[in-house]
Structures are given as C-alpha cells and as structure tokens.
Please model this.
Amino acid sequence: MQKNNMKKITIYSTPTCHYCQVAKDYFNSKGLKYESIDVQKDLVARKKMIEISEQMGVPVIVIGKKILKGFNEGDVEAALK
Model:
C-alpha cells in the first residue's frame, strides 16, 4: 500500500473510544495520513458526523466518499483502493 494515500481519510472519534484508537493505530502503522476530529469537543463536527452516518456511535471513518461505521480492517482496505 502506498504511503501517500490519494483519498482523504477523516476519523470522527472520542478520546475514550477503544476502536477509534485501534483505527488510528492502523492508519499510523500503514503510514497513512488522516484527520482526527474529536466529536466530544467539536459539537459542529458531531452534528455533521450524525448527519452523514445516521448514528451517534464512533468511530465514523470517511475515506474519499465512502462512510464506514466502526472499524473493520477489511472494509478500510477496500475503501482505500
């Protein structure tokens, strides 16, 4: 997998979310750049996350135009292609 991914990656997360940290660790291990948004602090971003995912759970990962609810390595790898 290439280090400079072409698709923008955004992860909506909270500091206490275990799966959010697992997702960030995955991206870091692959050398992928991503934007992390703390929806516990950023209420505008929380509202946007709920609108795009139709849920309040985290993580919500946006890769390009693909919206992933939760972290599943296979789904992330498919979205990166």
